[in-house]
Amino acid sequence: LFPQVLLLACAEDLECIPGFQQKVFYIEQPFEFTEDQPVLNLVFDDCKGNNKLNFEVSNPDFKVEHDGSLVAVKNVSEAGRVLFVHARSEHAEDMAEILIVGANEKHGALKEIFKIEGNLGIPRQKRAILATPILIPENQRPPFPRSVGKVISSEGTEGAKFRLSGKGVDQDPKGIFRINEISGEVSVTRALDREAIANYELEVEVTDLSGKIIDGPVRLDVSVIDQNDNRPMFKEGPYVGHVMEGSPTGTTVMRMTAFDADDASTDNALLRYNILKQTPTKPSPNMFYIDPEKGDIVTVVSPVLLDRETMETPKYELVIEAKDMGGLDVGLTGTATATILIDDKNDHPPEFTKKEFQATVKEGVTGVIVNLTVGDRDDPATGAWRAVYTIINGNPGQSFEIHTNPQTNEGMLSVVKPLDYEISAFHTLLIKVENEDPLIPDIAYGPSSTATVQITVEDVNEGPVFHPNPMTVTKQENIPIGSVVLTVNATDPDTLQHQTIRYSVYKDPAGWLEINPTNGTVSTTAVLDRESPYVQNNVYTALFLAIDSGNPPATGTGTLHITLEDVNDNVPSLYPTLAKVCDDAKDLRVVVLGASDKDLHPNTDPFKFELSKQSGPEKMWRITKLNNTHAQVILLQNLKKANYNIPISVTDSGKPPLTNNTELKLQVCSCKKSRMDCSASDALHISVTLILLSLVSLLCKLFP
After folding, report:
1. C-alpha to C-alpha distance for 457 and 68, rounded to whole angstroms
2. 114 or 209: whose pLDDT is higher?
3. Model confidence over 83-110: pLDDT tens digits?
4. What's the CA gap between 376 and 351, in Å, rounded?
5. pLDDT 10s digits, 227-250
6. What CATH number corresponds to the domain at position 359?
7. Residues in domain Cadherin (predicted)?
8. Residue 440 placed within a domain
């Protein structure tokens, strides 16, 4: 006998709809499914004759005969919770779902599997309304509306009407369900999507003709049965994994995880993973394996094959497939690409391309003289490839340095201190190369990681060198012309060439010096003046050349600093030289005079200020010393408006002292209303001294 079958799909369509005519079945599992004993009949119609119709069952212990009978191929005591049957013809394909519950779970099966509250077929309340839970497969085909269930009222009140409410009826999304108010038949108006809404909780009431509630409300649960209508999706890409070369077999590289929007409690969302393609396929077409359940990608080749330096490329791309339905052929699939990079480790030491390098450099020159080349099979983007060079022998004077070219990895050997051919014409350096990163254990630097550099120094005609340089000497200013300042000394570094040296003046800003071209004696050609603008801080600087007899000749430059000692050769000067005073001034202190001297102490202050002798019955002014450098001129009485010349002498403290006789011009002006008028004072009031000088001159002309 057939086990009890509960039909949960809608009523038969009025027109042919391609596919299974019933998509969802509910059966009780017997003690055992008997071999070749029909379980139920499946009806598939592609509406065009079912040409080349084939069936596939998710459980290999079952099959579907050509007449649609589902039978066991052997005695089966445990078939699981669900079976899926996939049908395909020349014109259509579809899938049916068979839900299996044990006999002792009959009344609680729907609640457990579909999470429906209440017991199937048992009223929830002792009321006249019987609202049995409704199960509806998602993605049903038109036409709509479809009848999906019926509500029964045991009290046949005349004129009573059924009324349905809740989400999906009069609440958003509105209009999905409706009820025949007379018969109580519930229908769905369009296809449902379980992934959008899996359950609807409706309420049914019975009203009279006036709309008054007679019975209810009673809860009506509608559950949407999942269909396998969502493909697995990889949402977390890009997927990039790294594995170190030489890693042991079974090393986990990365995890790939897909998402399926179908019901996670069914095989519709039960995913299995598989590698569809590996690029490249060498050294093995199966370098990696993916755990079908977890999605972990691991290495499956030996560490020897996982050698980055022998691979075509250190990057592998795997096309990963995720299939639902537990990986069965009827499952939907989604794919993603996993990129796996083989990371380098320092398992190859750098090696010089040859054991000996040659270099030639001219003496006295600095800079790069040779590039040392190395080979390294490790990844150029890592410290396992980048080279570090060290001079381990032949560089006691630290004349050489070596640095790594970051682009080429070559060692740039440089001269940092000029070499001297006369000291050494040849140099031999021993250089080693290592990596920035340490080598892995069991790998060591060998003989090829050291090299010799032979350096030849070429002789160059070097310019003579002054000793010392700069040269310093101290002389008094004003020494006689032709005096010897000093004799310079220059030598030729090219001791093996036996060259002669000639001297010449290079820079002599004041033109005071000359040099003997043969022996280097420097003499004066003019008076040395410490107060000259060419002298800075008492030092006069001149440059001389020493020229050898080479071809072409080489030149050396020497600097001479002459420190000039001061001599009292400058008379003091007086300032100011003009003063003005009002003819009716009450303050007769006319002016404060200051003195300065170009010489140095002790040939300057203290200065001595004096008035020349005044003649006449009355003295008109006097001078008073204020300090070592200043004195004050004071009138002894008011003077008439005129110009006066006051004779003053100022003497420095040198040995011997020098005196400057000068005159202070004094203008006596009229002052009215805070204005000084000196226009009428142009007439010179001749001093007594000038009158006497004029008389003497006149007498000399009369009596020659």
Report:
1. 100
2. 209
3. 888 888 888 888 888 888 755 544 444 4
4. 7
5. 999 999 999 989 999 999 999 999
6. 2.60.40.60
7. 161-234, 235-352, 353-466, 467-574, 573-684
8. yes
Report the pLDDT value the prediction gives residue 689, as an integer from 0 to 100: 39
Q: How far apart are CA 672 and CA 679, in angstroms?
A: 13
What distance separates the 2 farthest-apart alpha carbons in the chain?
182
> In terms of residue numbers, what domain contains 483?
465-565
Extended strands (E) in 573-620: 573-575, 578-582, 589-596, 608-611
Q: Where are the beta strands (DSSP E) in 265-314?
A: 272-279, 288-290, 296-299
Please tell me whether residues 312 and 244 are part of one structural domain. yes
CB neighbourhood size of 53 (10 A): 19
Q: How far is CA 94 from CA 139, 229, 330, in A?
A: 12, 11, 10
Q: Are residues 245 and 337 in the same domain?
A: yes
For residue 351, what are the CA distances in angstroms to 130, 286, 379, 388?
90, 34, 15, 12
Q: Is the pLDDT of residue 659 over 70?
A: yes
Task: State how far Cα 69 lies from the chain centre.
Answer: 70
- List residues bridging with 622 in a β-sheet: 634
Q: How large is the average pLDDT for residues 462-484? A: 93
Rounded-to-integer distance, Cα 394 and Cα 425, Å: 14
Cα 2 to Cα 25: distance, rounded to the nearest angstrom: 13
Q: How confident is the model at residue 672 (pLDDT cuts 50, 70, 90)?
A: confident
Give residue-wise pLDDT tens across range 123-133.
333 457 888 88
Q: Where are the alpha helices (DSSP H) in 115-231?
A: none
**What confidence tier does 618 reach under pLDDT thresholds 50, 70, 90?**
low
Both 189 and 265 in a single domain?
A: no
Confidence of residue 82 (pLDDT cuts 50, 70, 90): confident
Give how many domains the chain has, as a whole number: 6
Report the chain's C-alpha Rg in angstroms.
Answer: 60
- Three-state secondary structure along 552-578? CCCEEEEEEEEEEECCCCCCCEEECCE
What is the average pLDDT value for the chain, to the nearest integer? 86
DSSP type of residue 700: H
Tokens 């209810």 belong to 216
Confirm whether pTM is higher than 0.90: no
Contacts of 214 (CB under 8 A, 6+ apart): 155, 157, 160, 206, 207, 208
Last residue of a domain, one of 400, 426, 458: 458
What's the CA dihedral at 117, 122, 126, 131 to 10 degrees?
70
**Domain co-membership, 221 together with 240:** no
Yes or no: say if 164 and 186 are a contact pair by the CB < 8 Å rule. yes
- Phi first, then psi: give them for residue 633, nearest 5 degrees: -95, 130
Find, among 450, 217, 257, 426, the residue nearest to 349 by Cα.
450
User: Does a structural domain hold residue 621?
Assistant: yes
User: What are the tokens at 374?
Assistant: 């190395």
Task: Write down the residue that tokens 């083989």 correspond to.
Answer: 342
* Shared domain check, 286 and 270: yes
